[in-house]
């Protein structure tokens, strides 16, 4: 049978305590970025960086001239609403942000909202934050709010392509009209229901606590390399950390040679060549990684 998303859509709505007409299931958050860029007719979109680059790419592909707000390293890459132009009619921000791992206070993010503006909050990694503190999902009192969520990160389901949008019914309807028919496959719909079930939510919450413990252990190890020029942006709240490393390009290549892959940072607007993003792994892996990094830097 063709995919029927009604049950999964209702399950997501129930999870966040909102009506079904405020939920749109998408083929991952990536589809949502494309729909937002093409369906809403905004004229002055702004993306807050450093940030996942796909939202800006989708806006540019749709013909928009995209403004950038670069959060300064000196301020810990923390959101400052005063930096966002007042005439922006769409603002895109990640929370927690990829790649900085910074978790912005919900009240600070909400200050970006105003009548006539679409406020897009990418919460793809929010389920990795214990208690999902600072989440705006389920809020119906913030004008123009669009929250994007992913069900592929914690569960390692990137190939299934499943995510969802939480927004005002008029926005959901506009995005849905721009979707192709049956955008989410039947297996992905089944996975969505499982991920937002009581058991799924409980397992994700437990995983978030484990990630937080493993992240703090990793950060502690990295801070021991401060004498070699290593720094950690933070406080980090996601399942990855942003690490400053002198000569990161060469370091990244040498790490690859000993079996460790880290994400380059210089492709993110607002970051330079001396940054890498490091995934949070179990303690044993973190110990081996930091030992390898120390050897590379000292060699």
List keywords for this structure.
299 residues; 16% strand; Aspartate Aminotransferase, domain 1; alpha/beta; Aspartate Aminotransferase, domain 2; 2 domains
First-residue to last-residue Cα separation: 60 Å
Number of helices: 9
Rg over alpha carbons: 19 Å
Mean pLDDT, all residues? 96
Q: How many strands in all?
A: 11
Instruction: Bin the strand percentage.
Output: 15-25%
Q: Supply the helix-strand structural class.
A: alpha/beta
Strand order of the largest sheet: 1-7-6-5-4-2-3
Protein topology:
Blueprint: H1 6-16, E1 23-26, H2 28-39, E2 45-49, H3 54-61, E3 67-70, E4 90-94, H4 106-110, E5 118-122, E6 145-150, E7 163-167, H5 169-178, H6 186-195, H7 198-223, E8 231-232, E9 240-244, H8 248-257, E10 263-264, E11 275-279, H9 283-298
Helix pairs in contact: 1-6, 2-3, 2-5, 7-9
Give an account of the 3D structure.
The protein is α/β, with parallel strands linked by helices and 299 residues long. It has two domains: 6-196, Aspartate Aminotransferase, domain 2, CATH 3.40.640; 200-298, Alpha-Beta Complex (Aspartate Aminotransferase, domain 1), CATH 3.90.1150.10. The protein is built from nine helices and eleven strands. It has helices at residues 6-16, 28-39, 54-61, 106-110, 169-178, 186-195, 198-223, 248-257, 283-298; strands at 23-26, 45-49, 67-70, 90-94, 118-122, 145-150, 163-167, 231-232, 240-244, 263-264, 275-279. Helix 1 packs parallel to helix 6 (186-195). The longest helix is centred in the C-terminal third of the chain and has 26 residues, at 198-223. It is globular. The model has no long low-confidence stretch (mean pLDDT 96).
């Amino acid at each position: 049978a063709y995919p029927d998303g009604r049950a999964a859509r209702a399950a997501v709505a129930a999870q966040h305590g909102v009506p079904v007409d405020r939920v749109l299931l998408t083929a991952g958050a990536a589809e949502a970025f494309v729909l937002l860029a093409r369906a809403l007719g905004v004229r002055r979109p702004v993306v807050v960086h450093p940030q996942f680059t796909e939202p800006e790419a989708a806006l540019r592909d749709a013909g928009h001239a995209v403004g950038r707000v670069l959060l300064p390293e000196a301020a810990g890459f923390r959101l400052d609403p005063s930096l966002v132009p007042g005439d922006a009619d769409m603002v895109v921000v990640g929370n927690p942000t990829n790649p900085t791992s910074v978790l912005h206070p919900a009240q600070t993010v909400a200050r970006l909202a105003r009548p006539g503006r679409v406020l897009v909050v990418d919460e793809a990694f929010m389920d990795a934050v214990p208690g999902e503190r600072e989440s705006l999902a389920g809020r119906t009192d913030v004008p123009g709010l669009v929250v994007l969520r992913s069900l592929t990160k914690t569960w390692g389901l990137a190939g299934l392509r499943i995510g969802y949008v939480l927004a005002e019914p008029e926005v959901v309807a506009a995005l849905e009209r721009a979707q192709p028919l049956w955008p989410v496959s039947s297996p992905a719909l089944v996975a969505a229901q499982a991920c937002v079930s009581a058991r799924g939510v409980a397992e994700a919450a437990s995983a978030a606590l484990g990630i937080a413990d493993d992240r703090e252990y990793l950060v502690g190890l990295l801070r021991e390399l401060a004498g070699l020029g290593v720094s950690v942006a933070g406080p980090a709240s996601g399942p990855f950390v942003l690490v400053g490393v002198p000569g990161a390009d060469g370091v990244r290549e040498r790490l690859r040679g000993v079996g460790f892959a880290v994400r380059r940072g210089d492709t993110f607007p607002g970051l330079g060549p001396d940054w890498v993003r490091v995934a949070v792994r179990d303690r044993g892996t973190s110990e081996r990684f930091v030992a390898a990094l120390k050897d590379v830097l000292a060699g």
